[in-house]
């Protein structure tokens, strides 16, 4: 019986992909080799076969999802068999969507390739003057976006870059699967696919690990989805599908661009991801900005830590905080969030804060760290047992430390320790008797490398920091309470001796006949038959401690908050605002009216609108035309006030708003006031009855106030990071 012809054959035109797939299915049912491909005009036949294979694999994944939901056992097996045949055929045709890629990502890959194909068809039709062809191409692109494609209406090279990066990501996933299965042919296929992706303009490199590659592609997906969502008609797409695709990229691919990022901010994240600009501070792996927290703000903090660390003798504390700042800038979303939760204060310098009891621990730690290891130090055999980490925890204490890392890893939901220790006996040993570690040494390089990797994870470092602080505090307490040492320099020296050997440290102190000072304890240590063998360490410790000068009376360290400052429990009552709004201003009547309108609008909401930081439902609205919002954060509130009263968009985030208007050094009603390190914003509302400057802001809950819109004295808001004036004295608007 003769084979039926496709519509394309009847019309003597190039078939659509749907027609091609229908033809292939018909050929397969008749036992005919379907490997006959007509390219789309710009692909090679091999490229077209690969794309068609991907489409079949995606369809197979959809069928397999149906099978998973099917309760009838016979029908379930029929669907599984059908999906397996389709997927196998698709891979034979050159499809490179691996088993490790789920249905949602497969759909996005296929849809994005369709969008690029539609653009190329549109360009070809434009060249030929084919208006019908252009219309068909636009329709095809729109359908692909409704399907889940996230490439917006951008230039062709940008489209190619996005598809190229998806190809490289697919190649990395395929290569990892092939490596696990020892499939050399698929490894070569993956390497070839990655090369094609780079030829398309893809920017993911060989040095980017799989998580980084997923994050980059995820951010590109969110950036594209934002543009489609912002103007679905112009983008020829579907807003709901764009939101769903962006949510998938955030939840499953590590995308860091949030709902609150503007399109311009999202574009900056994507550009940074592609540039792979390495950190200039030295601890980063050369990963690009992740887009999680404000880039300029945290680069300033990182620079402070870096400058402090570069001082003579270094500063271990500053180096540790530099590591955290870089995680905030360049780490995964989980790492960035963890680091931000663990970084609290910036001390001006060790010397200025040396009189504070807490800082004495910091100084003693720095001295000890300079003599011991670093986070990832592993000494395989240190006098008959393993020693690890920055203080060189030895034998059964190494066991205790690793168990704490294990427990923290589990409690924080990372569950990485088992993966890291895979292929060694270490993980199972950590559930056994600690006494066996009294003689546990490392003879296997895999164990050495696994331990090093584990110790340098964020939670590995967190446990070491906490344990080191507890240990050093104990050393100092022993010197002060048991040995009667009062000299702070001598106490620090004693803590280093105690870290080496508690027994010998006590011997040294008891050999001193007079007062225990830095000079006397150092001389006694050199005379000790054990400690005297470490002359270089003793001298280094002595010279290091000499740099710290202590006053006779204690003085608290000077600190600067680097987290968002919380208002104190002295929030101003709303009834005091009326008088403050009536205070004279220095502008024209036009500027006065606008400024008062801004403050009046802001104060309408005092005691209302729950505070919730960076939530997807917290966005800029016009209060006059929109329903009352359920939640807002500080910048959403200020941007909504200005939109309502002046019909201007000052930006959704503090990072954008702090660049608006003009920088001023005084206060006028309606000015934007930024506190902390620019991470919090409010609106200046004049002076209260006591003559104190006040601001209206959407703020978190405090001991005396709920988390909502409130008025607070500026003197209780911590550091003023900047003041920006939108309404100028002549009544003009600078935005």
Automatic annotation (TrEMBL):
Gene3D superfamilies: endopeptidase domain like (from Nostoc punctiforme)
UniProt entry keywords in alphabetical sequence: Hydrolase, Protease, Thiol protease
PANTHER family cross-referenced by the UniProt entry: NLP_P60 DOMAIN-CONTAINING PROTEIN-RELATED (PTHR47359:SF3), PEPTIDOGLYCAN DL-ENDOPEPTIDASE CWLO (PTHR47359)
Domain NlpC/P60: 592-727
Skewed-composition ranges (Basic and acidic residues): 131-146, 554-578
Species per Swiss-Prot/TrEMBL record: Paenibacillus ehimensis
Compositionally biased spans, kind Polar residues: 579-591
Protein name (database record): NlpC/P60 family protein
Disordered as annotated region, ranges: 131-153, 554-594
SUPFAM superfamilies reported in the protein's UniProt record: Cysteine proteinases
UniProt record similarity statement: Belongs to the peptidase C40 family.
Domain of life: Bacteria
């Amino acid at each position: 019986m003769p084979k039926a012809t496709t519509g394309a054959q009847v019309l003597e035109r190039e078939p659509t992909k749907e027609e091609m797939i229908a033809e292939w299915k018909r050929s397969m049912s008749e036992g005919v080799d379907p490997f006959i491909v007509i390219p789309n005009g710009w692909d090679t036949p091999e490229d077209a076969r690969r794309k068609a294979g991907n489409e079949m694999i995606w369809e197979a994944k959809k069928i397999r999802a149906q099978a998973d939901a099917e309760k009838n056992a016979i029908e379930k097996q029929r669907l599984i068999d059908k999906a397996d045949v389709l997927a196998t055929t698709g891979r034979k045709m050159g499809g490179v969507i691996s088993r490790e890629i789920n249905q949602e990502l497969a759909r996005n890959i296929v849809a994005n390739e369709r969008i690029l194909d539609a653009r190329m068809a549109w360009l070809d039709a434009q060249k030929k003057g084919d208006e019908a062809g252009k219309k068909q191409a636009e329709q095809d692109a729109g359908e692909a976006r409704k399907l889940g494609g996230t490439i917006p209406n951008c230039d062709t090279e940008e489209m190619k870059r996005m598809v190229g990066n998806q190809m490289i990501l697919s190649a990395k996933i395929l290569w990892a699967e092939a490596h696990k299965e020892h499939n050399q042919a698929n490894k070569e296929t993956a390497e070839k696919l990655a090369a094609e992706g780079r030829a398309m303009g893809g920017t993911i490199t060989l040095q980017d690990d799989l998580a980084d590659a997923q994050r980059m592609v995820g951010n590109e997906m969110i950036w594209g989805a934002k543009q489609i969502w912002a103007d679905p008609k112009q983008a020829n797409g579907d807003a709901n599908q764009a939101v769903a695709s962006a949510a998938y990229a955030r939840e499953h691919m590590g995308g860091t661009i949030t709902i609150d990022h503007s399109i311009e901010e999202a574009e900056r994240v994507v550009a940074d991801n592609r540039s792979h600009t390495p950190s200039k501070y030295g601890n980063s792996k050369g990963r690009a900005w992740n887009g999680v927290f404000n880039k300029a703000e945290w680069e300033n903090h990182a620079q402070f830590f870096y400058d402090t660390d570069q001082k003579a003798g270094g500063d271990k504390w500053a180096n540790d905080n530099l590591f955290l700042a870089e995680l905030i800038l360049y780490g995964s979303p989980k790492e960035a969030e963890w680091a931000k939760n663990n970084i609290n204060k910036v001390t001006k310098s060790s010397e200025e804060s040396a009189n504070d009891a807490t800082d004495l621990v910091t100084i003693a730690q720095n001295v000890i760290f300079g003599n011991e290891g670093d986070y990832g130090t592993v000494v395989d055999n240190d006098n008959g047992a393993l020693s690890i980490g920055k203080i060189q925890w030895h034998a059964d204490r190494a066991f205790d430390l690793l168990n704490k890392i294990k427990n923290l890893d589990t409690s924080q939901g990372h569950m990485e320790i088992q993966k890291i220790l895979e292929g060694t006996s270490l993980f199972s040993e950590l559930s056994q008797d600690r006494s066996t570690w009294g003689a546990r040494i490392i003879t296997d390089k895999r164990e050495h490398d696994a331990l090093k990797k584990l110790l340098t994870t964020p939670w590995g470092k967190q446990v070491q920091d906490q344990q080191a602080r507890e240990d050093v505090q104990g050393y100092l307490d022993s010197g002060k309470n048991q040995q009667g040492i009062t000299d702070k320099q001598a106490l620090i020296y004693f803590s280093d001796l105690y870290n080496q050997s508690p027994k010998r440290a006590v011997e040294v102190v008891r050999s001193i006949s007079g007062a225990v000072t830095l000079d006397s304890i150092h001389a006694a240590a050199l005379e000790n038959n054990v400690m005297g063998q470490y002359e270089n360490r003793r001298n280094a410790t002595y010279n290091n401690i000499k740099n710290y000068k202590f006053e006779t009376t204690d003085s608290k360290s000077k600190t600067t908050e680097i987290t968002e400052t919380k208002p104190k429990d002295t929030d101003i009552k709303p009834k005091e605002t009326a008088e403050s709004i009536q205070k004279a201003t220095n502008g024209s009547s036009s500027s006065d009216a606008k400024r008062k309108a801004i403050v009046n609008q802001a104060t309408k909401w005092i005691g209302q609108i729950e505070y919730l930081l960076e939530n997807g439902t917290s966005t800029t609205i016009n209060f006059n035309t929109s329903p009352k919002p359920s939640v807002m954060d500080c910048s959403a509130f200020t941007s909504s006030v200005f939109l309502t009263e002046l019909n201007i968009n000052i930006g959704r985030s503090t990072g954008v708003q702090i660049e608006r208007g003009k920088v001023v050094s005084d206060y006028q009603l309606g000015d934007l006031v930024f506190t902390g390190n620019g991470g919090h914003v409010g609106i200046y509302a004049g002076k209260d009855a006591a003559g104190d400057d006040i601001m209206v802001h959407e703020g978190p809950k405090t001991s005396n106030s709920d988390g909502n819109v409130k008025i607070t004295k500026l003197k209780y808001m911590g550091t003023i990071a900047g003041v920006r004036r939108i309404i100028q004295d002549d009544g003009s608007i600078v935005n």
